[in-house]
Design a protein that fits this description.
dipeptide transmembrane transporter activity, transport, membrane, 169 residues, single chain, extended, MetI-like_sf, mainly alpha
Length: 169
């Protein structure tokens, strides 16, 4: 298979080879273990944060009032709890990005995948200070951008922040 984009799954999908289906299945099979390695730790952290936030929201009076009105537990969860439990979690997702970046570097080294992390670790091994500086700047910039975006999204999703915006007008 001739690489076009550098992503095996996309290259297999864009290929006009008669073995296209087998290439797609092979690309997916080769992605399973790295994806699991990369996603387990951040997913458990997000689930823990969401659980804590959901428990706090369930103790609020409006949730108890909704239960008293006879709404089902699923309806209460969908209409009242998740809407109010998500805003405190969103800014913390930006902090998870740095963890994901670190895990991606480790995953690239373990599974011998090319990428920014493997390039940066090889630059550290070879003591290529210009490449190390560039890699750290790129990674740091990505972390800052993602944190700013997650903070903005968290503020937009938080109804209490909307009240503050209107009070400032």
């Amino acid at each position: 298979m001739k690489p076009i984009t550098g992503f095996a799954l996309i290259d297999a999908w864009l290929s006009d080879s008669p073995w296209r289906d087998e290439m797609i299945i092979s690309a997916i099979r080769h992605m399973v273990l790295p994806v699991i390695t990369l996603s387990v730790a951040p997913t458990t952290e997000v689930i823990r944060l969401m659980r804590i936030s959901t428990i706090e929201v369930y103790d609020q009076n409006y949730v108890k009032a909704a239960a008293t009105r006879g709404l089902s537990r699923f309806t209460i969860l969908r209409r009242h709890v998740l809407h109010n439990a998500l805003p405190p979690v969103i800014p913390r997702l930006g902090l998870q990005f740095s963890t994901m970046l670190t895990l991606a570097m480790i995953t690239e080294m373990v599974f011998s995948w090319p990428g920014l992390g493997r390039w940066l670790i090889n630059a550290i091994r070879q003591q290529d200070y210009a490449a190390i500086s560039a890699g750290v700047m790129v990674c740091g910039s990505l972390v800052i951008i993602v944190n700013v975006i997650s903070d903005i999204l968290g503020a937009m999703a938080n109804p209490l922040k909307h009240k503050e915006w209107y009070a400032l007008r």
